[in-house]
Amino acid sequence: MRTIYFGTFVHSLTLSDLQVLPSAAVGVDEDGTIEFLDQNADSPEVVAEKHSWPVGSYSIVSTDPASASFFFPGFFDTHIHASQYPNVGLFGKTTLLDWLNTYTFPLESSFADLKVADSVYSRVIARTLGNGTTTAAYYATVHTAGTNRLADLALSVGQRAFIGRCCMDANSPDYYCDKSLEEAQKATLDVIEHIKKIDPNYDIVCPILTPRFAASCTKELLSWLGKLSTDTNLPVQTHISENLLEVDLVKSMHPFGNSYADVYDKCGLLGERTILAHAVHLTEDERALIARRGSGVSHCPASNSALTSGETRVKWLLDAGVKVGLGTDVSGGFTPSILHTARQALLVSRHLSMKGDESHKLSIEEVLYLATVGGANVCGLDNKLGNFLPGKKWDAQLITLDCKDSPVDIFPWEREKPEDLIAKWLFNGDDRNVTKVWVNGKLVAGTAFTL
Amino acid sequence: MRTIYFGTFVHSLTLSDLQVLPSAAVGVDEDGTIEFLDQNADSPEVVAEKHSWPVGSYSIVSTDPASASFFFPGFFDTHIHASQYPNVGLFGKTTLLDWLNTYTFPLESSFADLKVADSVYSRVIARTLGNGTTTAAYYATVHTAGTNRLADLALSVGQRAFIGRCCMDANSPDYYCDKSLEEAQKATLDVIEHIKKIDPNYDIVCPILTPRFAASCTKELLSWLGKLSTDTNLPVQTHISENLLEVDLVKSMHPFGNSYADVYDKCGLLGERTILAHAVHLTEDERALIARRGSGVSHCPASNSALTSGETRVKWLLDAGVKVGLGTDVSGGFTPSILHTARQALLVSRHLSMKGDESHKLSIEEVLYLATVGGANVCGLDNKLGNFLPGKKWDAQLITLDCKDSPVDIFPWEREKPEDLIAKWLFNGDDRNVTKVWVNGKLVAGTAFTL
Predict the structure, then answer these.
(1) Would you say which domain of life the source belongs to (chains A, B) (predicted)?
(2) Alpha-carbon distance B406 to B431, whole Å?
(3) Domain B2-73+386-445: assigned CATH number
(4) Is A425 helix (H, G, I), strand (E, B) or coil?
(5) What fold is seen in the domain A75-378?
(6) How far away is chain A from the Cα of B259, in angstroms, using its nearest Cα?
(7) Which of A15, A345, B83, B199 is the most buried (most CB within 10 A)?
(8) Coil, strand or helix: which one is A154?
(9) Which residues of B touch A311 (CB under 8 A)?
(10) Cβ of A351 and B311 within 8 Å?
(11) pLDDT digits (tens, 9 = 90+) for A363-399
């Protein structure tokens, strides 16, 4: 059935333009597509009549006018290792390379057991969806069956997800790797075939080619994945320039590349649907190359702080035309919440600006753009998702700041100041404020969600 | 009645020694004082018999052995502007001095209205106590009646609190300041008198002398407060070296001091019960002076990041013997939670270490020490509070990680790894995990608290 959503809407139009629309109406058709967005609407009924939607042909979802609540686009998590979710917060004083060996590979290797995959993947989907993440670009593990299970679960729950089977045929521990190029190829194709079977048009779940990172793949595997991406138009995700030791490692492993980015480029992996996580230590030339190719960056501030990786220059990337979205990078990042990650993006940008250049500072509007429209750009879904413009899909969350047990206190004089309410949400809000979550027009989660 | 607490206890003994005691028992007498802490206890009954506590003379509070829960000392918030609580998250792109004029002074001035004071102060006490803050060093406003109300509310709810009436007779807006030295003196004495009346031994609420900061006080006012502190042995709280523009301002206003710290020292304000908030940009000499005087620092990482103030060198302070605790610095800081602040302290220490010196990194053990024992040190209450050693008061929280709607997911294989559970709590826990909160042996808050 069609639905008219009525009340206050908040969404990003551009990096700096966070639009607040009180008394607006959004009409969503049977397929979850937004048919209209009407500002200054009198009532759902008046709007319906204007658009010739007959009485009885639609349902209505209104925000309570007495409450501090609003519709907001669903969040994009453009970089999350679903399999690492049990390890959130566990990193000690490690940095990237020792962290992988100490915490990460041992956990990921346990996903040979489908029971582990089931229990972890169902939790991470519920947790991220409950935090308003309607689209996630997931890394699974090397295991085909476990990766397929992640796809099954995301589809059945209704979370939009890119499903990445990790390719790693070099420089990885014996107990956790692709034993050969052929094994990586076969497993990758098996996962694609499985997802094609369960969601033929990739409406909700879509395979994503996933060379773990340049240092864990042979040139042959990288090139094969690059060609596969060109042939199939499937998206790609990988890591780039997260940590200085890693940058050195890639340089020594792949001398054919002039830079980390050039290694990927020479292997055909820098396309318009490529997500590059981190991009902390890029050179000017790499930035220009990535911009030219139209690839996107997943900025993972919580992870970059936790693992002492560095401070990504987000404005510097955006200024060159590089697409940027946010990633939790669970479990290098400690939080499964994109709201929390957006908060960290704002804070990290201040640490960057403490070095002397104020222009690095990100505003609330900007980090919320990164969390939504920026994420859609990076995922190549900007024509379909990211805000409430007609023609896009209804992937949305209903945020209620004065819900029961809310972590946010609203005082009477603040109720009429939407920009203050949004700031308070960004800094103290959490999943308790996520009352309802829709993907593709379908209600799938939220504190007010029951089956 | 006496109480035996039984189950798992976690507390800090030293900066690096976070002790985890499964199957321990803590006996608390009628006055809220810890009489014993027994490790490897068989049962509350066996322990009671050992200590000659007759059956029927005590009650028992046990953690559920099937749940991931533990007793933890109550948190210290050594720097929080109670009156600024409505503004948490509101700071935009300001830094200290414009933030004061844009956001802070207008809000604080509204506390001339006791209705505002009542509504804000009751919320901030409930919110901080619900987050496990059993002791808070509060700044109120310049208003005597409002400040007294904060003391009344803290006492009636049962939160241990230092109550600071802001002194500011210079360099402050006309609409919000002390009109004269005499006005500041009279108001200060009035608040002391009030608190003496409601809590004669300062068991729960205690006045704290509060020159807002050196740049908002005349030398006469600073010196009078310094002398009053010596005469009465009352504690002192103020700000120091938060922001470079502020440091310059203090230098030009008070040329009699060789440094910011020296201004306070020459006015007699650096005592063993002095709390100095921020201390971001101290010189070596100032650090040595503060250490010599035995004053403490309230480290406010969330605030320092938000207002782009800088990165406090916590280890550098501790290395010189300076006492350090944590402060939320609401609302320069955006969170009323000390757990969240401890997380930020760990992250900020990583940003500091990105400048090239790994030794700045704070561990989980260290930030939890700062949140408890460190806070007690800074407040001059280390003989009385901070951990569960016999002779101290039972100010504690019961943390339950697998409570209903917990923000923390625990997987089966993690249940027996206390250090992992503590890490997961630090990074994703919140007030939902604070099941019970006691101050001075009395249950006062928590999700399982009902009157």
Answers:
(1) Eukaryota
(2) 9
(3) 2.30.40.10
(4) helix
(5) TIM Barrel (3.20.20)
(6) 23
(7) B83
(8) helix
(9) 351, 354
(10) yes
(11) 999 999 999 999 999 999 999 999 999 999 999 999 9
